[in-house]
Write a structure and sequence with these properties.
The complex is a heterodimer of chains A (349) and B (337). Chain A has 349 residues and is of the alpha/beta class. Chain A has 12 helices and 13 strands. In chain A, the strands form 2 sheets. An 8-stranded mixed beta sheet of chain A has the order 7-8-9-3-10-11-13-12, with helices on both faces. The radius of gyration of chain A is 21 Å and the shape is globular. In chain B, the strands form 2 sheets. An 8-stranded mixed beta sheet of chain B has the order 6-7-8-3-9-10-12-11, sandwiched between helices. In chain B, helix 5 runs parallel beside helix 6. Chain B is globular, with a radius of gyration of 21 Å. Classes of the chains: A alpha/beta (349), B alpha/beta (337). At the A-B interface, helix 7, helix 8, helix 9, helix 10 and helix 11 of A face helix 5, helix 6, helix 7, helix 8 and helix 9 of B.
Chain lengths: 349, 337
């Protein structure tokens, strides 16, 4: 590929280069993440947005090396964090980073918490795995962290079991567990998807506040563009296991380049007055193809209104649109095509 | 009132209670008031959205209305028929006219049966068609939801989430209903597919003069589909009115908080608004007074709020709210003009 690559982050905390994570299945090899390159700078919030099957969650699991065999990260992929390649390092180096320098929270706090231990003991356990310390000191750290995530009466709540807590409090406990070692990077995969909207607003506010006070970077993975708009500083849009667009958040929302990003932004129901004229939502025809059979050329071509021959045969590289904005779309090379769209790609099915 | 003016569906003082059992012998230790005196009407051709957070009773109310679970008390009238009093045979006949579209079309489709079988089943149960006539009806229903006829031979696992939801809608539609309860029909779908399904539901409503009860927690979508909105909290309706009025001039502090919590898909509109504290109470917890009082941010909140259960009162024409304080009319962003 000869086209210009996007400018890499100047001083990345985490640097992913050409990540390929594959899963053998009955229907063939699913190339869930297929050549992903991105960097996370210290202190920033990088949002990864994508639909189901885009590879966003597999990216998170790959960084933490939680890919279960027969799934694997292919040779040639690198995930550099503080001088260590997480894709290839030994188990001991991985343990020194995972849970300590990189914290993680997932969508469903109930499945991530152990039901037979109190939440205080589970947080204290994280401390004792990573540090030589007394039980008492670890417990004290756990209680302090529960207070930091704004759980009232934290000393008493530390003695409770996960089932005794509400969904929002459980997600706060997950945050406390992820942050008790003061990691430099927090990976949050759909952290508010299972929560009510009023509780989601609480957790997002808390996350922003903790990020400030702890000075950590956040890699936020979500399907929800409104969450990206609310908290991310930079955005990577994933489709078909690849980054298809990358830009600062305001630029992405104001001037998206990739037709997929444009379509997603148009499809989001915007808060509006009921029954006002433009009641019909913009659709993207079709659906995300399976990871076992990505289309040739551009992976979005059969859903794209602009697609022409080149898109069907030649995979677009990530074209640099500006110093901070990149798009995996041949329209960057042939912008005149945007003004003459082909007829839409056909009916939904 | 003549039949054309009468609301198609009319629910009066509906209660649904579940026994709360504790201990190994399962003695009943009280009741969960999942739905606690809910009343609303759905006029023909309109869409009433029942909105609220998890546990507020919106799904339970809809299922009791359809008699999929027993109501404890109250009345449900469908086109003049008392649904809760119907005997099995007339109830079976009535069910053809009231259908349900589920949130997760995957778990509501039998994985061992083809799409065509799933749609045909309703036709057979209601003795609407058989043999080649049923095949025609299946093809027609698939066409209406934008699927090609050969989808009749596919199995659910061969379909994408959006295609499965189209099958769920085709199955409901095939028997020719007048009233469709849509229970979070797009919340399991990807954004790009959500728009397809919302548009489809609106097209079908127009073409078949359908009446919808739309259950959802996503207020941005509700703003697109609803003509009327009922906000539920703790098993009760706390605000009810025309969609434009509820979204633009919410009267109840909870509705205002719910609207304020909707994130705008625009980084320029990033707001640092006050975040509503706490979480929705479980209907198993007894509570005196207004169920929202522990979380209520209204500065006029006082002792009366902890004692008096606020009735749902008409505060302006057609717009009801359950709050003992005089409503503050303010335009709520981002739903304002």
């Amino acid at each position: 590929m000869t086209a210009p690559q996007p400018v890499p982050a100047p001083n990345p905390l985490l640097s992913i280069r050409d990540l390929r994570t594959v899963f053998p299945t009955g229907a063939g090899v699913a190339r869930a993440v297929d050549g992903l390159t991105l960097g996370v700078e210290p202190g920033e919030t990088l949002g990864i947005v994508g639909e189901s099957g885009s590879g966003k969650s597999v990216t998170a699991l790959s960084i933490l090396r939680l890919i279960r065999p027969p799934g694997r990260i292919e040779a040639g992929s690198s995930i550099t964090f503080g001088g260590t390649d997480l894709a290839t390092c030994d188990a001991e180096s991985l343990r020194a980073i995972r849970g300590r320098r990189i914290g993680m929270v997932f969508q469903e706090p109930m499945t991530a918490l152990n039901p037979v231990f109190t939440v205080g003991s589970q947080i204290a356990e994280v401390v004792r795995v990573h540090e030589r310390t007394t039980r008492q000191a670890a417990w004290g750290r756990a209680v302090a962290m529960l207070e930091a995530v704004r759980i009232p009466a934290s000393a008493e709540r530390a003695h409770q079991y996960p089932h005794e807590l509400s969904g929002g409090t459980r997600q706060r406990v997950m945050l406390a567990m992820a942050l008790v070692m003061h990691p430099a990077l927090l990976i949050a995969d759909e952290p508010t998807t299972a929560l009510d909207v009023t509780v989601q607003a609480q957790i997002l506010a808390l996350l922003a506040e903790l990020q400030q006070s702890l000075g950590m970077a956040v890699l936020l993975i979500t399907h929800d563009l409104a969450i990206i708009a609310a908290v991310a500083s930079r955005v990577v849009v994933m489709y078909g296991g690849q980054a298809v667009e990358e830009a600062p958040v305001t630029e992405l929302f104001a001037a998206a380049h990739h037709p997929y990003t444009e379509g997603l932004l148009r499809a989001v129901p915007r808060p509006r007055l009921p029954n006002s004229p433009a009641a019909r939502l913009a659709e993207i025809p079709g659906s995300v193809p399976p990871a076992t059979a990505w289309p040739a050329g551009c992976r979005f071509h059969d859903r794209c209104a602009f697609a022409w021959d080149r898109c069907r045969h030649e995979m677009p590289p990530l074209y640099a649109i500006s110093a901070t904005h990149a798009s995996r779309c041949h329209l960057a090379a042939e912008p005149a095509r945007r003004t003459a769209p082909a007829p839409t790609a056909g009916t939904p099915s | 009132m003549d039949a054309s003016e009468r609301p198609l569906v009319s629910v009066r003082d509906l209660h649904v209670r579940f026994p709360l059992s504790r201990g190994m012998f399962g003695a009943t230790r009280g009741w969960v008031r999942a739905v606690d005196g809910v009343s609303f009407t759905v006029p023909r051709g309109e869409t009433l959205a029942l909105v609220g957070e998890s546990g507020c009773g919106k799904t339970t109310a809809a299922r009791a209305l359809l008699r999929l679970i027993p109501a404890t008390s109250g009345t449900v009238s469908f086109d003049g028929t008392d649904v809760l009093a119907l005997r099995p045979e007339p109830l079976r006949r009535l069910r053809r006219r009231m259908q349900l579209v589920f949130q997760d079309p995957y778990s509501s489709l039998n994985p061992r049966r083809t799409v065509g079988d799933a749609i045909r089943e309703g036709l057979l149960v209601h003795q609407l068609a058989a043999g080649s006539e049923a095949d025609d009806r299946v093809r027609q229903a698939l066409g209406e939801v934008g699927l090609r006829p050969e989808f009749a031979l596919r199995y659910p696992y061969e379909l994408s989430g959006g295609q499965r939801q189209r099958v769920g809608i085709a199955r409901a539609l095939a028997v020719g209903p007048e009233f469709v309860v849509c229970d979070e029909p797009v919340s399991a779908l990807d954004v790009s597919v959500q728009a397809q399904i919302i548009n489809l539901l609106q097209d079908l409503q127009r073409d078949h003069a359908l009446t919808y009860l739309y259950i959802a927690h996503d207020l941005a979508i509700v703003a697109h589909v609803a003509t009327r909105v009922a906000v539920m909290y703790f098993g009760r309706i706390v605000e009810l009115g025309p969609a434009a009025a509820v979204f633009q001039h919410p009267l109840m502090p909870y509705t205002r908080a719910l609207l304020a919590a909707v994130l705008s898909p625009d980084p320029a509109a990033r707001r640092s608004h006050a975040v509503l504290p706490g979480e929705s109470p479980s209907p198993a917890t007894p509570m005196a007074g207004c169920p929202f009082h522990p979380r209520c941010p209204d500065p006029r909140k006082d002792a009366a709020c902890t004692v008096t259960v606020p009735p749902l009162e008409e505060k302006s024409p057609g717009h009801f709210a359950a709050c003992i304080k005089e409503p503050v009319v303010e335009t709520t962003l981002p739903f304002g003009p």
